[in-house]
């Protein structure tokens, strides 16, 4: 059974979907490819409670918090490979679509990589907002370019503050890739 919960974030409500074992969806209102809305808090869910807690930590500056939750996104083999690669992009950093394609051994597949990135069902938990145009422009984000800009600014500011105060980047949780 899929359970759902809507969580308030600084950039708008985020609809979370989970099974009893993993988070399977995180979509902003109006996001492309979002499933039809279902009733909020259909049943109590430890996964959804933990997801909400980890989002609070992410927005408070612990950027690796969202990597601590089990996820299970359904997709093609290519989509899942792209989503694993997204998790490996450090907070505060970006990759171009072409760069990500090259990292995946498919240097001529930047459009396919972009489509897979856009179909990411786990906004923030799988950081598709970290992928930008080759010229550095903030192209495409299923949740909206304004949200993408906000998330990148949040991560960069948090990383700068961490380096300035501690001399090192914030610790990130181990990759789920």
Structure, described:
- By secondary structure, the chain is an alpha+beta fold.
- It has two domains: 3-68, Double Stranded RNA Binding Domain, CATH 3.30.160; 77-166, Arc Repressor Mutant, subunit A (Orthogonal Bundle), CATH 1.10.10.10.
- The protein is built from five helices and five strands; from the N terminus they run βββααβααβα.
- It has helices at residues 46-59, 77-87, 97-103, 110-118, 145-166, and strands spanning 3-7, 14-18, 23-28, 95-96, 131-132.
- The protein has a three-stranded antiparallel beta sheet with strand order 1-2-3. Strands 4-5 form a two-stranded parallel sheet.
- α3 crosses α4.
- The chain is globular, with a radius of gyration of 16 Å.
List strands and helices in order, with pairings.
Layout: E1 3-7, E2 14-18, E3 23-28, H1 46-59, H2 77-87, E4 95-96, H3 97-103, H4 110-118, E5 131-132, H5 145-166
Parallel strand pairs: 4-5
Antiparallel strand pairs: 1-2, 2-3
Helix pairs in contact: 2-4, 3-4
**Overall radius of gyration:** 16 Å
What spatial order of strands do you see in the largest sheet?
A: 1-2-3
CATH fold descriptor of the largest domain: Arc Repressor Mutant, subunit A
By CATH reckoning, the class of the largest domain would read Mainly Alpha
Number of domains: 2
The helix count comes to 5
Q: Would you identify the CATH architecture of the largest domain?
A: Orthogonal Bundle
How many DSSP-defined strands? 5
- Report the uncertain regions: 162-177
The structural class is alpha+beta
* Helix content class: 25-40%
CATH homologous superfamily descriptor of the largest domain:
Winged helix-like DNA-binding domain superfamily/Winged helix DNA-binding domain
Biggest β-sheet, characterized? 3 strands, antiparallel
**Mean pLDDT value:** 85
- Which strand-content bin applies to the residues? 5-15%
């Amino acid at each position: 059974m899929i359970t759902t919960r809507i969580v308030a974030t600084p950039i708008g409500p985020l609809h979370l979907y989970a099974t009893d074992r993993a988070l399977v969806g995180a979509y902003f209102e109006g996001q492309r490819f979002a499933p039809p809305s279902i009733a909020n808090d259909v049943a109590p869910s430890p996964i959804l409670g933990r997801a909400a807690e980890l989002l609070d930590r992410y927005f408070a500056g612990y950027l690796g918090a969202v990597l601590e939750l089990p996820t299970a996104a359904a997709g093609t083999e290519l989509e899942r490979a792209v989503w694993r690669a997204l998790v490996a992009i450090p907070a505060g950093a970006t990759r171009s679509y072409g760069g990500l394609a090259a990292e995946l051994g498919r240097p001529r597949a930047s459009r396919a990589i972009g489509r897979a990135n856009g179909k990411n069902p786990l906004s923030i938990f799988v950081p598709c907002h970290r992928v930008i145009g080759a010229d550095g422009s903030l192209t495409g984000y299923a949740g909206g370019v304004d949200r993408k800009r906000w998330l990148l600014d949040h991560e960069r500011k948090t990383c700068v503050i961490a380096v300035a105060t501690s001399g090192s980047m914030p610790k990130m949780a181990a990759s789920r890739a």
